Amino acid sequence: MHNTKIFKVYPSLNTNLPIIPERSVLYSLEPIGVGTPYCESLTSYLTRLSYEHGVSIDKLLSLNDFFTHYEKEPYPNNRHGVINHLIGMYDNLRAVNGIGKQAQTLVNCLEKLTGQNNLSYLTLLTWSEITCHRKLFKVYKSWCPRCFQEWKLQKELIYEPLIWFFQEAKICYKHQQILTNQCPYCSTNILLLSSSPGFCSKCSQWLGSLSNYELDSKEILKDEELSWQNYLIPSLQDLIAIAPSLLKSPDKYQFLTFIHVLLKSNNTLTKNQLAKVLGLSFTQLQAYYQDFCLPSLPSLISISHSTNISLVKMLTENHSEGLDKSYKITSFNKDYVKSNKKIGSYQKRKSRNKIIKALKNAITENPPPTLISVIKQLGYKNTSYFYYKFPELCHQITKRSKEYRHQLSLKNIENIQNEIEEIILYLHAQGIEPTINLLRSLMPKSGFLRHQPIREYILKLQKELGYFVND
Ligand SMILES: [Zn+2]
Ligand SMILES: [Zn+2]
User: Fold this and answer.
1) How confident is residue 280, by pLDDT bands cut at 50, 70 and 90?
2) How far apart are alpha carbons 74 and 221 in whole angstroms?
3) In this predicted structure, which of 107-121, 235-249, 378-392 has the lowest mean pLDDT?
4) How far does residue 147's CA lie from ligand 1's centre (Å)?
5) What is the 149 CA–ligand 2 centroid distance (Å)?
6) Which residue spans of the chain are classified as CATH 1.10.260.40?
7) What is the whole-number distance in angstroms between the Cα of residue 182 and the centre of ligand 2?
8) Could you tell me which of 193, 225, 223, 188 has the C-alpha nearest to residue 207?
9) Superfamily in which the 250-332 domain is placed by CATH
């Protein structure tokens, strides 16, 4: 009898390749805040993406993988030409976050290469059918120093929200701060795409909060301008936030039906009166309802403001006349607002004239006063308002007082050098070596011995007298 060996049956090896999700050519960087009022801008995304790859934006965009995805038809058929057309020139730069072809081209390329599929919400492309193209966005960056600082402290990613770059946006709604557009260290205006979010393109300094360049919007803007900003910014932020949840992009008929219903609901008013109430000119209103042109964003927001219908509602809801919609305008207090405005601006002009007079006086005053002393006399504490409103005059005052202080310190140095020379020569004549320690004990105010020009002067004298000293 022989042993029958029983072999163990092992599970079989699966030789099918595992399913690997598609790889993206570029790092699949996630955009920040999509679907929120603080959604990132496409220019910010591009800068962060190029930073993550450790290359400049030009380098990134001239990658072969990028180039094959560009639509070359309207552009000159060379790499440099295409990139220049996309981001090289001023007006093209502002178009990157916008609603036109450049924004669309970049979104298409970036989506293919990063595998992200929501990059169009970093622009205003969703709303391209309902507003006209002119100057929607800024060319230079503007930012809220307090937002930057807050994100840094909370260790969040630093980026630039789309809302900051609208041509019309002057404040950060959250912090009620004026959006800054100049580096506080080197006064540079920073071009979009020229540096990483949060840093100056020229001096590389951090652009987060510094108390001397925080500008409270209440101090800077007139009341009516501030309340306009406080209506405009949330309206635009609503547009940005709602875009990803819309089933389709609204088209111009949306707005056309709205205007028709509005005209019909207010047929007791002449078109001229209605235009006035809406904050438009008669020609503008006519052009809109006859479908000659698309309204600008400020016009849309002005209409929304006067009708008390939110911008999003105006541009996304069904306004068909068949639905018996009625948008009766009830507020006719525009004249009242206007007369109030006049009083307010008269008072502001009066105090403005007083400030200008004081600043001009300071320029001829001798000895030249510092800016802070001038504004203290006017009853203010913070110089930022003055730098914002009267930059030329302020810079002249600061320049004069700086030069004056510089001259003073030069004169001081000369006096001290003379004094030191006298002591050193006296000690030398007595046969005593004039060491720094000895000088320190002999001179009543010895703090200046630490200053470089004084140290050099002493060293020179010691050497001239034949003492051996280390440099
Ligand atoms: Zn802010
Ligand atoms: Zn700078």
Assistant:
1) confident
2) 43
3) 378-392
4) 4
5) 16
6) 250-332
7) 8
8) 188
9) lambda repressor-like DNA-binding domains (1.10.260.40)
